[in-house]
Design a protein that fits this description.
Chain A has 12 helices and 15 strands. Chain A is α/β, with parallel strands linked by helices. Chain B has a single domain, classed as Rossmann fold, CATH 3.40.50.970. The chains are: A alpha/beta, B alpha/beta.
Chain lengths: 355, 251
């Protein structure tokens, strides 16, 4: 393994994506992810990869669609308003069963919002955002090293299931620097060639066609049902989460990404104060780690969700808990990152009300 | 009995029957493109991008690898394909609503980048698939389902002239407006399509052929009347012309 180097999150994700086999990148500048597109612009020509700055996120996502049609490893990165613009294309990419990787370095919203870290695009990423019955595989890292490793996972998942994968980072992960180990470049033989469906010119075979539509509702339903078989497999096999100090926990926190990381400090404060808190940190936001939360609800007294939003993931947490224990929520919005202490104060209030 | 084949379906077309209305010129345009792909021996290495509109099924009629882009985004999708596989031939086939309304930004920037793809642009001044609404190229005074009193310049503006807009962009290698109203027009159109694909194969830049076409169904005219209407009304607004030719003579 290589030595540790200090890298900004956006740059680390870019370099990791290239090492994970990303051949083509299309994107459009937007804060707080612009270092990612800038890194790609400089680095990709050096190693013989293809970079293009699109005229808009709308164009970028459709370039992604085109590149994905050829079975080439392709990605883009953006931030919240930009990802909103990509929603139509994401729906088409999912509908056409194409592998592609997206990074949303989430910032405060709605509207133009601000450029500070936020987690208010959870609904957009995990519940649709675009039109129609489709699912994205959604992953969320809490450290830059985890983001680096996740890039490899993301491309592999996209290829394995022929489905777009979204990495939800936030402005904090994009902008901060941490020491990371970069895995080596993967060898080309590790990348599936997709010969059976990709558009590369028919040569001597039958033509390949890729679409996301059928005007016959019976056939479209069949297409959607087939996609849902894939989604079922993803739910069975690809749930990712971390448990932290859950063995003796009386309170289970649920938080992802940057918030999940901050909560580890809150948990230390809580335990020093005699409240046995633990953490379930979803790493895959879809498929959501419903089972560990459901099981935790059997033994803890409270499952508390904390988000950098007014409460989006908490709805999935409450579905998992199914009313077995109280499920309070604490969140800040608009680009405010809660401190460990303020979450601890919120925990104390909820705990004292309960016991 | 021995004979010679004087006329047959081009190899670049599948055996699927066209779904276009009687009198529609999409069939002629498809055939010309297919004949050129065959003549230039490009069929096996071509990837096409169909639009949203009447020709949304074009990928079923052409016997090449193909996909359908979201409405207006065909040249962005084609860009993604071409940048991934630079040695393949990539073309888009788009109508006026797709290319000149919802897809205007993609059209201009693809042309400006000199993207080495070819666009066949069908301009019949109306939205066909959705049932005859006003297009960006609809003529002033033209009655459509969304301009039932006739297009008014002071509220809906003027028909947009795509070739005249694109001719100022340095990335464009071949740009011509043709039509299909007479046998002579069809021969000219075929030559233009050949030059457009030649521009791509030679790596000269972006190429686009605008085909001034008809829509008997939504114009509310017979096929023959449509040809006459196009000649009387469309061609004065959209004059036939070679705007850019960086290809030169082609055999």
């Amino acid at each position: 393994m290589a030595e540790k180097i200090l890298l900004k999150g956006n740059e680390a994700m870019a370099e990791a994506a290239l090492r994970a086999g990303c051949q083509v990148y299309f994107g459009y500048p937007i804060t707080p992810q612009s270092e990612l597109i800038e890194y790609m612009a400089k680095r990709m020509p050096e190693i013989g990869r293809t970079f293009l700055q699109a005229e808009s996120e709308v164009a970028a996502v459709n370039m992604i669609y085109g590149a994905a049609c050829t079975g080439t490893r392709v990605m883009t990165s953006t931030s919240s308003p930009g990802f909103s613009l990509m929603m139509e294309g994401v729906s088409y990419i999912a509908g056409a069963n194409l592998p592609a990787v997206f990074i949303n370095v989430v910032r405060g919203g709605p509207g133009l919002g601000d450029i500070q870290p936020a987690q208010s695009d959870y609904f957009q990423g995990t519940k649709g955002g675009g039109h129609g019955d489709y699912r994205l595989i959604v992953l969320s890292p809490a450290t830059i090293q985890e983001a680096v490793n996740m890039m490899f996972d993301a491309f592999d998942l996209a290829d394995r299931y022929r489905n777009p994968v979204l990495i939800i980072a936030d402005g904090l992960l994009g902008q901060m620097m941490e020491p990371v180990e970069l895995p080596d470049f993967i060898t080309p033989d590790r990348i599936p060639n997709h010969e059976g469906w990709a558009l590369r010119g028919k040569g001597s075979r039958e033509q390949h066609t890729i679409t996301s539509f059928d005007l016959d509702p019976v056939k479209l339903e069949e297409m959607n049902l087939k996609n849902y078989e894939t989604y079922q497999k993803i739910q069975e096999n690809e749930v990712r989460y971390e448990e932290y100090l859950m063995d003796d926990a009386e309170v289970a926190f649920v938080a992802y990404g940057t918030m999940g990381r901050i909560l580890k400090t809150t948990i230390r404060l809580a335990r020093e104060a005699g409240i046995k808190a633990g953490l379930i940190r979803p790493i895959s936001l879809w498929p959501f780690p419903e089972k560990p939360i459901r099981e935790a609800a059997e033994k803890v007294k409270m499952v508390m969700s904390v988000e950098m939003s007014m409460g989006q993931m908490v709805e999935d947490v409450r579905l998992a808990v199914s009313g077995k224990v109280p499920t309070p929520f604490y969140g800040r919005t608009g680009g405010i990152v809660p401190t460990p202490t303020e979450v601890f104060e919120a925990l104390k209030r909820e705990w004292e009300a309960l016991v | 009995m021995k004979g010679i084949v004087a006329f047959k379906r081009p190899d670049a077309l599948t055996s699927k029957e066209f779904t276009y209305c009687p009198g529609c010129l999409h069939g002629v345009a498809h055939r010309l493109v297919a004949e050129i792909l065959d003549e230039m021996k490009l069929t096996d290495q071509t990837i096409m991008v169909a639009p949203v509109g009447c020709s949304v099924f074009a990928y079923e009629f052409f016997d090449v690898d193909g996909t359908v882009a979201p409405h207006g985004r065909a040249t962005a999708v084609a860009t993604g394909i071409k940048r991934s596989l630079p040695d393949r031939v990539v073309f888009t086939y788009q109508g006026d609503g797709d290319l000149a309304a919802i897809g205007t930004a993609e059209t201009i920037h693809t042309a400006n980048r000199g993207e080495k793809i070819t666009t066949i642009f069908i301009n019949n001044a109306i939205y066909g698939m959705t049932g005859g609404q006003m297009a960006p190229t609809s003529l002033v005074g033209m009655k459509t389902t969304t301009s039932p009193y006739g297009r008014k310049a002071d509220s809906e503006g003027y028909p947009i002239h795509v070739c005249e807009l694109l001719q100022n962009l340095n990335g464009v290698a071949y740009l011509e407006r043709v039509t299909l109203l007479t046998p002579r027009d069809i021969i000219t159109a075929k030559k233009a399509i050949k030059k457009a694909f030649t521009a791509q194969v030679r790596g000269l830049g972006y190429s686009l052929v605008e085909i001034v076409s008809t829509c008997p169904t939504n114009w509310g005219l017979s096929p023959v009347e449509s040809l006459e209407w196009a000649k009387q009304k469309m061609l004065p607004e959209f004059p036939l012309k070679v705007f850019i030719d960086k290809v030169g003579d082609v055999k």
